[in-house]
């Protein structure tokens, strides 16, 4: 009797993935859980989740301002939600580890959702005179990529493709164009607005929205958040400091300060 052939090894290590997921910080877990919850709610027919929470320019008024916060959590199907969540998780996890859980909540519930939404509505409705609705966490993916591109640009201004030097801050723009070409039903304008806000975040112009560290420490101590909430990242546990990583350098190539082209992109949809 022939011995059955061994199964080929998996292209990834399930143990490492499990360890990574177990160590995710609190706010990142909550975002993924909310995305999952809204996706599951789409299976019922009594309540139109997408119609309720999508960012629809002509539907925005005093009674529907909640849409400025709900649209990143809502997706148009399993693959849309899964790919967005997969792209967002490492970026959001790093942001929370660098800035703390309370700061991450304050920014993503506030300006990092509402500012790109407001910019999109301004251009889409009042300049282009259209009413295209958008949903999806890729708004945060491109926003965080824009912020990371600015940080990288400060320490490594260029990456090289052959003999050409290309500014590293342009990499999210290239990704935005490629995604718009390769993936149907994406919002190029929505992604572009997110990148612009990410640039502002990376340049430090959104620091005004960050709660003072003294107040954050008082809240954490008063509520004992570190002791009560598993995976909570306190002000004093942050990895890299208040607003991001310290500049680092890599060995320069023969033609100057260059970095090899590496990019964590997104093939997700931001558009219904």
From TrEMBL:
The keyword Transmembrane applies. It is an enzyme of class 3 (hydrolase). It catalyses: Cleaves type-1 transmembrane domains using a catalytic dyad composed of serine and histidine that are contributed by different transmembrane domains. Residues 248-272 are annotated as: Disordered. Keywords: Hydrolase, Membrane, Protease, Transmembrane, Transmembrane helix. Gene3D superfamilies: Rhomboid-like. GO terms for molecular function: serine-type endopeptidase activity. This is rhomboid protease. It comes from Penicillium fimorum. It comes from the Eukaryota.
